[in-house]
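fyi for ur records
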Amino acid sequence: MREYLLQRLLQLVPVLFFLSIIVFTIVRLIPGDPAAIRLGMEATPEGIAAVQKEMGLDKPIFVQYGIWLGDVLRGDFGTSWVSKQPVLQLIMLKLPASLLLACTALLIALLIAIPAGIISGVKQHSLTDNIATTLALLGVAMPQFWLGLMLMLVVAVQLRWLPPSGYVDLNQNPTEAIRRLILPASTLGLTLAAPLARFMRSGMLDVMNADYIRTARAKGLTERMVVTGHAVRNALLTVITVFGMQFGALLGGTIVIEQVFSWPGVGLLAFTAINQRDYGIIQGVVLFVALGFILVNLAVDVIYVYVDPRIRY
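which gave:
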């Protein structure tokens, strides 16, 4: 296991290197001149040339990449062209809000998906299974932004149970922070629960007819002990994989949901940076999220060993 972990960590270097090249190149293909956007309506050719020189955009692209990569290797992800703040500082400032939203959404998804998938797998073709499968299909097909807007319209605007948007620090006002967290977290949680429930149901159907399940029943174990002690653990492998991918994706923030609910996370930071052509923030966010995604998937591989002792690396 130690050699496997070391090998995976060493793979981070070429992956992040090639990703940095791709991101650096694609970002500069985005239409719009950052210097012109920064100057606005009063931009002149002389002013644009001066701002481009200040930003370092007058140099060849491979020289720009070399300078940026050298700074990144020293732990400097650059400075925002708009706010003049360090990129890493901005990311770390927005990260707690994204982590809070992602963890709460995944908790809601698991609380819904795991029981629904187990019941659907055990009681295949029953009324409960049909209802759960239909809701899961609706959840997969339903756009997140539409569900978020509907929840905002019904719960916040018409019923006035919760505030429609905004963010409050959990340490400053826990009650108000939780009230503002419910709607965006529920939106993400409900849409994430749909694929997780489908994978959990599929895993349960695969294991319920296995030989060891029949052996457990032949030994006289109750159906609850057979399901919870034997079937669920083996059916979780696929769910853990999907869970890791979803959590890795959420580390970068869900841009649409953060935009809809004015949630000041990493996703909203990236969205604003794209509109302002703030290359430093875009590149920093992508690299940061990629690193988190890889580490989460590494953690998932480690969890496999504890869930299924038959797996060896």
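The chain has a mean pLDDT of 81. thats all i got for now
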